[in-house]
Amino acid sequence: MSATASPAPTSAEAAPALPAAGSSFYTAMRLLPKERREAMYAVYAFCRAVDDVADDGGTREVRRAELDRWRADIDALYAGRPVARTRDLVGPVAQFDLKREDFQAVIDGMAMDAEEDIVAPDEATLDLYCDRVASAVGRLSVRIFGMPEADGIKLAWHQGRALQLTNILRDIDEDAERGRLYLPREKLEAIGLTNPTPIQAIMHPRIGEVCSAIAREAEEHYRATWEIIRRSPRKATKAARLMAAAYRLYLDAVVARGWTPPRARVKPGKFPLILVALRHGLL
């Protein structure tokens, strides 16, 4: 720390994190009216904070204790006793009827990463993980967007899984370096892999069969996502449309790259991303 640097804020004092300018999430949230946008930023700050605990929050015991404190803080928020780090959620919770169980589900999802490195979970565990870390965030989001309840919950279910499976495919090498492997056990066993290390799995000559199967599942979730979006009010789905279209570019990019190592990190070109922003940001 330099002589002029101020001490880092504690987790209870830290200023709310904002999404990186230029990211798909930032662009999507900028499409929202001010009140809804600020509510989404408050939810984002919460998600970012608990994600940081899960990934970089110290020893497993320290991470577990901090996530337990977050659980207690969410309970206190809903009991009318918000602490400093949940105060920005008071308005959104009241105005948009955000559900306590969705915040707690996000924490439970982060705990799955914090308590042990996930390696080749079974299909049911992987689906639960996707629901907690992605679809639960979607359920909070669609209420802020103003989606009708039934279709909003369905949209969160499918879009959360589509986006999270895309992340898993995009990040298999980076996750393996951290000792994590989110590809499901059943699909790995189908190519002859039983209890592999993450590195063994991603370097297997038939790993492309597993990744291609996950990509097809993600594609089905994107298809269902767009079916719901098309029958829903355009004003309430503008941010969801942009996120779905932008993330689909990532899925298409990793599929086009292929699965044979060494796998270059992929990112859609700037021009396709601009077209997505123009199409879904202006219409």
From TrEMBL:
Keywords attached to this Swiss-Prot or TrEMBL record, sorted alphabetically, are: Transferase
One Pfam family matching this protein: SQS_PSY
Q: Which SUPFAM superfamilies match?
A: Terpenoid synthases
One example of the protein's molecular function in GO is: transferase activity
Q: What is its EC number?
A: 2.5.1.32
InterPro entries reported for this sequence: Isoprenoid_synthase_dom_sf (IPR008949), SQ_synth_HpnD-like (IPR017828), Squ/phyt_synthse (IPR002060), Squalene/phytoene_synthase_CS (IPR019845), Trans_IPPS_bact-type (IPR044843), Trans_IPPS_HH (IPR033904)
Q: Which top EC class applies here?
A: transferase
- Provide the protein name: Phytoene synthase
